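re: ur question from the group chat, yeah i did fold both. here u go
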Amino acid sequence: MNDFFAAIYENDLIGFYAEGFSGELYNLFLYQKYGLTLLISVVVFVLCYYKLLDKPMFAKFIYWLLVLIVAVVFNFVFLRIDSEASLTSAGFSYDGEYLSLALVNALYAAIIFFVLSSIVKFFSVNTSKIPF
């Protein structure tokens, strides 16, 4: 599973951080940890909006956008803090790569949130027309 998430995070279009950094993330199985955290957290946020907040009051684009922003910020902050703490405790020091990886993770969180919203919204009663 680490190979799967490493391929996603290190693709030519997005993966723009140093090779040593990505090698250490791979060796410490952090890609697997971050990929699973990304998927699980985004699914939870989407389900929270479309199932827990499935009331006419929340059937507005602004609430959907707010949940999207919270999901993106959560994934960004989690990865930024955890990657630096994990690699620092393993004896490595990188400067801008933590931020780059966190930005990539935030971008993936937004994309996955949007895709899942397009699918899950049909199972909702009141929020089925949100975001479009």
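okk and heres the other one u asked abt
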Amino acid sequence: MKFLVDAQLPPGLCRLLNRSGHDALHASQLPRQNLTTDQEIIVNADADGRAIITKDTDFYYSHVLYSRPAKLLLVRTGNIGVADLVGLFDGQLTEIVEALTTHDLVEVDRTSIRPRRSPGDAHGSTTL
């Protein structure tokens, strides 16, 4: 799966995703690096078929209202250390990828993965 990790999440998350066989890009690797706007991130992700991974709820509202970005993984952990975040993803990556394969919107917190119904999403909401 292809991912674009938003600027407020650590590049270490990209390293984990890439080591796991996925194609992950951090916002800091885009031409305007961390100055890249949310809209530019959405355009880049959608053009390249990437799911955006973010903590920024602006992406959530854009997805729900306009179906942009096309695929979104919203991280709802609150403040979390880099090692804990990477560990969370490492332990749940198979389930996260499966959820994003069947749903356009997935929320992850410290204890669950929740695929959500979104506009154009033919699947219901479940907790994994």
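fwiw on the second one: Strands lie at 2-5, 23-26, 51-54, 72-75, 105-108, 113-116. The longest strand covers residues 2-5. idk if thats what u expected
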